[in-house]
Amino acid sequence: MFAGLRTGPVAWLAQVDATHDNGVSNMPVPSGPLKEVASLLEADWLIVRGNNLKLTAEFLDPNKDVHNNGQTRRSIVYELSPIQFVQLRAGFRYNDGISQAPSRHLKLAFLELHGFF
Predict the structure, then answer these.
(1) Tens-digit pLDDT profile for residues 60-78
(2) 1, 16 contact by CB (below 8 A)
């Protein structure tokens, strides 16, 4: 399920996905049925033409039958589109996963150049 809304210069996107996987008849899921939930909430602010600020919050529960295994990710990203088909993105992202896996707790700064054709 997803929805979008525009409030002035801010565009909002919300999405929730839920799956229930039993596998197929000749290949069932080894650990039993798998239930998963993923969600996204995003605000895109058009500062001026070609300049966009994006705030994002995401949540993933890869297996609803396992407690405390949810993962969250929060991002702030500035997007600059100086010319048509070119975009420069700079941002910060914080990943917060399960406490038993320190590698799932990351702070990331990034710079990306995108070309569209």
Answers:
(1) 988 777 777 888 999 999 9
(2) yes
Q: What is the pTM of this model?
A: 0.78
Both tokens of residue 115?
Answer: 């070309």
Q: Return the structure tokens found at 112.
A: 């990306």
What are the φ and ψ backbone dihedral angles of 102, each rounded to 5 degrees? -55, -25
DSSP states of 78-109? EEE--STTEEEEEEEEEEE--TT-GGGEEEEE
Q: Which helix (H) or strand (E) holds 54?
A: strand 51-61
Which of 32, 35, 40 minimizes the C-alpha distance to 14?
A: 40
Q: For 43, which DSSP code?
A: E
- SS (HEC) of 16-39: EEEEEECEECCEECCCCCEEEEEE
